Amino acid sequence: MKKLPSVMINFQDNEIPNSSWMSKWLMTIFLYCFPTKICTRIWDFFLCEGIFGLVKIIVPILKVF
């Protein structure tokens, strides 16, 4: 991951496959991870920006956590 190499290193060190976190986030559009109010904002952004707009959401979330 170009933008957050420390996050990628942490995932690799802890043997966390991308499929374990990405599938829940992308398949449910964050429904399991955040309150409904935040999910509604994310869905709105997704509908306006498209699938590639999710990258603009995922990277800052990973940076925070």
Describe this structure in words.
This protein is mainly α. It has one domain (5-64). It has helices at residues 5-13, 18-28, 36-49, 53-64. The longest helix is centred in the middle third of the chain and has 14 residues, at 36-49. The chain starts with a helix and ends with a helix. The model has no long low-confidence stretch (mean pLDDT 84).
Characteristics of this structure?
65 residues, mainly alpha, 4 helices
Q: Strand count, sense and closure of the main sheet?
A: none
Number of strands: 0
Net shape: globular
Q: Could you name the ranges where pLDDT drops below 50 across 5 or more consecutive residues?
A: none
Instruction: Tell me the strand percentage band.
Output: under 5%
What is the mean predicted local confidence, pLDDT? Answer: 84
Structural class: mainly alpha
Count of spatially separate domains: 1
Q: What is the gyration radius calculated from CA atoms? A: 12 Å
The helix content, as a percent range, equals over 70%
User: How far apart, in Å, are the first and last alpha carbons?
Assistant: 15 Å
Question: What is this structure, in a nutshell?
Answer:
The protein has helices at 5-13, 18-28, 36-49, 53-64. The chain is an all-alpha fold and 65 residues long. It starts with a helix and ends with a helix.
